[in-house]
Structure formats: structure tokens, C-alpha cells
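FAQ: What does the model actually see?

It sees only this:
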Amino acid sequence: MKLKLQFIIAAFIALVVYVPVAHGQANLTFSGGNGTPLTTTLTRSVTYTIPRTNSNCFFKTGFNPYFNFDEVGNPVPSNPAVTGTISYSINGGVLRPIDFERSGYVNGDTTLSDISLHGNSRSPYPFGDFVVVLSAGTVTTTTNIAAPPPAGGSFTTFITNQGGGRCSSNGVAAPPTAATVSVSGRVMTASGRGIVNVRLSLTDSSGQTRTATSTAFGYYRFDDVEVGETYILSAAAKRFTFSQPVQVLNITEDADAVNFIADSKQSGRNF
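And it is asked to produce this:
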């Protein structure tokens, strides 16, 4: 009886020890790559705290942050420049842009599979501890990326300096402000063949646009789409036209079959 009780206690302790813990604080999704520009989407804003006592982020040239995301993948060699809507502020001040994206850098607290977004503002330091907020949005490389996009997910994030030295506590993502669902579907020919690398754009009522690229079999997906909104979803491709290239969506639940069908003839070909 005593042995059986000890076994039950040991099993309970093991269960407690090995309960999975949520890995990260920031949700990233990716689209493009495979020889096209790579789009990185941060779905919610992230807040970082930097103590004045941490010397890693204090230089004569000013604050020069790298927003690091742990173990994402290694798709962006050569530090490509980016444009887009992700920006950051210091203690609620002016918004400052992200100018390039980096991965494959091994030094300090960064590893080969980390991705970093670089804010090159050289801004002056506030007095005492300070708070940095990275806004939700997207950035897209200005050059094509040969590698496929990494899988999206939830990733630990923190700020480092140029040498990879960690400056901040782990970033904390803002809670969702509304219920969210997904919008997905397929882009295909009239005969049902999937069309790759079609650019899908999803625009909300405030004019904010997110983009995705169809896969080799024509599938696409947008996650974290707020319910109760009206969206405009459009498809664009170099080699194909669509009889209905724009669709208006009133989102109340998951929309999993929002498809686009290419015209039956394009560039003199039947398909």
C-alpha cells in the first residue's frame, strides 16, 4: 500500500513537472519567399521594459534596438531592407520605423534561427528605466527571398543590441481586443488546379491591409481576423485574371472556403 502511494505521488509530481508551458509572447505569421519578397506580420503589439542598469543598450550613438524573436527560422540572409507598418515608440513618444530584417546571426543572446527587426533611429535615452512598444503590423522585404517562409507561431521576444547582447525583459504581447477568426480558401483554375504565388490582400474598414501568398497548391490563410468587421479581399496574379478578383466579406465566424477562380482562358491557353 505504501509503495502504491509513493508511485501515485511520483506520477503526480512528474505530471506537474512536464505540463507544457506556453513558449512565447509574440505571434508572427509569414508569407511570400520562394523567390518573392517576404512579408512578416506581427499580429499584436509587444511591450518591452529596459532597466537603466542594463548597459547593453546604452551607447554614445543612442538607442539602436534589434527586436529579436527566438527560433523562428533563417529565411533572410544579407539583412534585406524592409518597408511596412511595424514601428516602435519609446515611453509613448514618436513612432520610429523598422528599416531591415536580420537572421542567421550568432552572437550574444541571438542564435542562427532567430529573426530580428532593426530600428535604426539612434534615438536619445530617456531618464531612468524605459518602456518600448513595438506596434502590430507588417514589413515586407524590398528584395526577393529565395527560402520558403518560416512557419508562423508564438515566439519569445526581447531587445538586443547590434552585437546580440540582451537589453530587455521578455516582451509581453497585448491581449486580443476582440474575438478573432480565420479567413482561408484556394486560388485555382476552372479545372481545379491550384495556382501558386497569387497575392491576396485583406483590407479592413480603417484601410489597414494584410497580405498573403498562395501556396504551391493554391491555398492561402489569414489568422487573427477580428469578427464584426467588413473586409475587402482581393487577388492579383501576373499570369491570370479573375472574373471576381474582389470579394466583400462580413466576418462573423471562420470563413474557410473563400475561393478565387481564374478565367477559363489566359495568355492563349485553356486550363
